[in-house]
Amino acid sequence: MIKQVREFDLNIEQVLEHWTIIFALREIIANALDEQVLTQSKDPKIFKDISGSWHIRDYGKGLKYEHFTQNENIEKLNNPGLVIGKFGVGLKDALATFDRHNIKVLIKSKFGDISIGKANKHGFDDITTLHALINHPSDDDMTGTDFILEGIEENDMESAKDLFLKYSGDTVLESTTYGMVLKNVKDRPARIYVNGLSVAEEENFLFSYNITSLTSTLRKALNRERSHVGRSAYTDRVKILLLSCTDAAVANRLADDLQKFEKGESHDELQWVDVQLHACRILNINDNVIFLTSDQLLNGGSLVSSAQNDGHRIVVIPGSVSTKLHNLKDIEGNSIRNLEEYRQEYNNNFHFTFVPVKKLTNQEQFVFSLTEDIFQLVNYDKSIISEILISETMAINEHANETLGIWDPDKKRIVIKRSQLKNIDLYAGTLLHELAHAITGADDFSLKFEIGLTDLLGKVAKSSLHNRKNKRFFSKLFQRK
Fold it and tell me: 25-39, 321-335, 363-377, 397-411: which range is least confident on average?
């Protein structure tokens, strides 16, 4: 008589006694998701039937008894960026765990109905081992595989599902060739997923990540349990994931976190300088920003105010990052806008109509001729200044009054509006104002500039004590800022 039930020895040499039901469910769900990806079939279903049994149902090729052998699955090996598992060992461990926790298992496919039971090991009647009991299929037209589990608690099933990106509630911020950057779920540590399965958690990561392009180090670290993988195994992939991002959704979050760096409150990804710089490179093209250090924000004065009035968003960065921006381009090859870059843009917006000295009126020429005397009053060598020019027109800032003078550090020149030559008071005051910019390198309303200007005016006041003839002029000059 032909035996109707075939017994397949699972040959489990080591039972993972610390495995929980959640770990076992994880393996079954992982296999169902792998099958869906490999066969391009519809999504698996996870549900409880009216009798209280849980089903994990996929619509792939269907499970065969051969899948219980601990062999590498060639199809899975050929698609390492898509699937979670590659050996039959995970399935067998799951079945052993179910058996240990008295969970009744029935696996149905068109290749047979399989349950789990104890039987004598072939050739050794004194040894009883766990076997897959294979019966004829109850539905030989069935598509896919249905795992039917009796005795599973709902919270265990929900916990198992939550280990997968598909069911976790994480939001994808950006996808790259290396994987995905994910928005963290509130009140839960950041997660590291590998092909959609959670393998580690991070308490101080800004994002969660789904790694789909694995390094050899990461492959080796994905142990039999596929949990608690060490950070060293995935650090390189997390970093390259961030460096391959181009979307502002990621860059803005990095930039916001970067501003906490100097207070020691930023997340761990912002400890990597190349990630800090990449955030600046993305933001420079996706947002109207200007990158400043905290010192520049404090001392930038009117230039910072002008940038804000022009609609620029201020992003405060560490000094170590600022020094690297000078020679750095954004991801489209443009210069990154820091304070010096904005200063150049600001100066380039000025429109000058220069007036040669010989075209000035006699009175204007006389006032302009006092330039050297004014420099002598403050005992200043004007060699730092290449030239002083007079212009009929200057730029108009829609948010402020008309500009009367400007110090151009790139061309090392001072340009003064012609209207300031009406009298010596106006001209001298504007000239000293711009000289203070040249000496300090600081902008209006900054403390450094105010100190520099006060020092110049103090020298003028001191000179006035020795020159009663021009007391009225010096008095007015001292009052002008």
Answer: 397-411
First to last CA, the chain: 112
Task: Please check whether residue 212 is in contact with residue 178, taking contact to mean a CB–CB distance below 8 angstroms.
Answer: yes
The span from the CA of 205 to the CA of 192, in Å, is: 10
Query: In whole angstroms, what is the distance from residue 267 CA to residue 22 CA?
Result: 30
CA–CA separation, 362 vs 379, rounded Å? 27
Q: Which residues contact 477 (CB under 8 A, 6 or more apart)?
A: 425, 428, 429, 432, 457, 460
DSSP bridge partners of 126: none
Coil, helix or strand at residue 211:
strand
Fold of 357-479: Zincin-like (3.30.2010)
Measured in degrees and rounded to the nearest 5, phi and psi for residue 292 equal -130, 150
Distance of CA 10 to the CA centre of its chain: 46
Q: Residue 144: exposed, middle, or buried by beta-carbon count in 10 A (0-12, 13-18, 19+)?
A: buried
DSSP assignment of 386-445 equals: -EEEEES-----TTSPPP-EEEETTTTEEEEEGGGGGSHHHHHHHHHHHHHHHHH---TT
> Tokens representing 6?
């075939």
Beta strands in 231-312 (DSSP E): 289-292
Return the structure tokens found at 94.
């799951």
> Quick check: 106 and 113 in contact, CB under 8 A?
yes
Which helix (H) or strand (E) element contains residue 130? strand 124-135
Dihedral, CA of residue 187, residue 190, residue 196 and residue 198, to nearest 10:
-90
| Tokens at 387, concatenated | 């030239």
Pairing of strands 54-58, 104-109: unpaired
For residue 277, give the 3-state DSSP assignment. helix
Return d(Cα 12, Cα 128) in angstroms, integer: 12
pLDDT band at 160 (very low <50, low <70, confident <90, very high): very high
- Sequence ranges of the domains in the chain: 6-162, 168-243, 248-348, 357-479
| SS3 call for 235 | helix
Fill in the DSSP letter of residue 159: H
Structure tokens at 22: 């959640």
The per-residue pLDDT for range 391-418, each reduced to its tens digit, is 998 865 544 456 888 888 888 899 999 9
Give the model's pLDDT for residue 479: 46
Count of Cβ atoms closer than 10 Å to residue 411 Cβ: 12
Read off the DSSP letter of residue 374: H
